[in-house]
Design goal:
Elements lengths: L1 H22 L4 H6 L1 H24 L11 H20 L15 H26 L8 H15 L5 H16 L5 H16 L1 H27 L5 H10 L39
């Protein structure tokens, strides 16, 4: 019986854990180890154990012949209890003509998931505000390349999301009451919601490495006399100023964002390879 209970607990925990992982794909372990996530797993495990006790006490054989061994009967009991309890917990009862949400065991799970949503939102907000993954970048200079990199990191992304990013970038460019760092932070938070913190950090690191490489090449060319000092100063004067505390004071000329609407009315240009960004 102990082995059966352990297997039922395993099935119930796997069902609840799989649902949490699919719901919070960006930070699955943080969701599972949170108080709400542990409570969600506990409810699924307890339901599986209770179902196993009911099945065992009722003596159900599920149509198996008497010649079947005890192992086969144990497998039938554990499988029925584990997966049957998961189905029972997600039942929703409502009148046939009702258009609202039904009531039933699923209401308990939905309440726990809403609590988990709030916990993960608070954790995500603290993590995004405490991190400095966009250090060394500038909104005016890098927002287009950053958005393109993040969008291309996704295998599929909604065209409406790309248009929303373009609208946000246009609105931030027109804001005069925000500094460049504030604009970059706002744009970065929107990208986090789209691709996640890890993907945004990777894209920002890629841009910083490219800027550093360009700065080194420009310094080497100037030292070798290939670029006159006056020409370098003119190019630096034409570049937009970087954000406060930025590691790089120079940058290449800004390229228009492909997220902006094109003059002919097209809402989005054709995808390019990551190396073309």
């Amino acid at each position: 019986m102990i082995m059966e209970i352990a297997l039922a607990c395993l099935i119930g925990g796997l069902v609840g854990g799989a649902e949490l992982v699919s719901r919070y794909r960006d930070r699955p372990w943080a969701a599972i180890l949170s108080l709400a996530g542990l409570l969600y797993l506990f409810v699924n495990i307890i339901a599986a154990v209770v179902a196993l006790i009911i099945v065992t006490a009722a003596g159900w054989r599920f149509g198996l012949p008497a010649s079947m061994g005890e192992t086969a009967q144990m497998f039938a009991r554990v499988s029925t209890a584990g997966f049957g309890s998961a189905m029972a917990l997600r039942l929703s009862l409502a009148p046939a003509q009702a258009h609202g949400a039904g009531t039933g065991p699923v209401s308990l799970l939905n309440g726990i998931l809403r609590l988990a949503d709030q916990v993960m939102e608070r954790k995500g907000a603290l993590s995004r505000l405490s991190g400095n993954g966009l250090a060394g970048l500038s909104f005016e200079r890098d927002h287009a390349a950053l958005a393109e990199l993040c969008c291309h990191l996704l295998e599929q992304f909604d065209l409406g999301e790309a248009q929303r990013l373009g609208g946000l970038a246009a609105d931030l460019r027109q804001r005069t009451d925000l500094t460049d760092s504030d604009k970059l932070d706002c744009f970065g938070l929107e990208l986090v919601r789209l691709v996640g913190e890890r993907a945004l950090r990777q894209a920002a690191q890629h841009l910083r490495e490219r800027l550093e490489k360009e700065a080194v090449e420009r310094s080497a060319a100037q030292a070798a006399g290939q670029v006159p000092a006056a020409a370098v100063e003119d190019r630096l004067a034409a570049l937009p100023s970087t954000s406060e505390g930025s590691e790089f004071e120079t940058s290449p000329t800004e390229r228009p964002s492909r997220l902006r609407p094109s003059p002919n009315g097209a809402s989005r240009l054709e995808r390019k390879a990551l190396s073309d960004v």
